Amino acid sequence: xxxxxxxxxxxxxxxxxxxxxxxxxxxxxxxxxxxxxxxxxxxxxxxxxxxxxxxxxxxxxxxxxxxxxxxxxxxxxxxxxxxxxxxxxxxxxxxxxxxxxxxxxxxxxxxxxxxxxxxxxxxxxxxxxxxxxxxxxxxxxxxxxxxxxxxxxxxxxxxxxxxxxxxxxxxxxxxxxxxxxxxxxxxxxxxxxxxxxxx
Length: 199
Known about the structure:
The chain is mostly helical and 199 residues long. It is 58% helix and 9% strand. Among the domains are: 52-102, no CATH class; 105-174.
């Protein structure tokens, strides 16, 4: 038993010695990860709660490694506003004003013109309004097809009128021809008088 105790003691001391040597030669390596990325730019939520307001919401964000930007805004819908204003005017009994409000849209202006009921002009309606619009082309919505056609017609009319004026000038006698004709008439009158005196 004594021998067993000695052998066990010997093994444990050997194990401690080998553990100490292994600890002396062991290399510990570790990697430390640091997160340096900037926080993400989040687009704000722009909420338009009232359905009676003619606006739509838009938001956007952009993120780079250095800088992040985020913004939001509302965009006005002019066509929606025009329709709501026209309905309000019509509801108050202002029918001509309601139509005039809608006529600011070039599509409505063209439709009214083509249907034979041109948009009101400064209180004029019907044919009187049509004549007034033709005299004041600068007040027609610029994207209107009727506006483009009327401007083209006016240019063509001016061109035709200038051609007529030039052709009239061709038929009139120049000052030189007028002088020559005066000189030709005087001898003829003298000859006629002489003939008359002779008879």
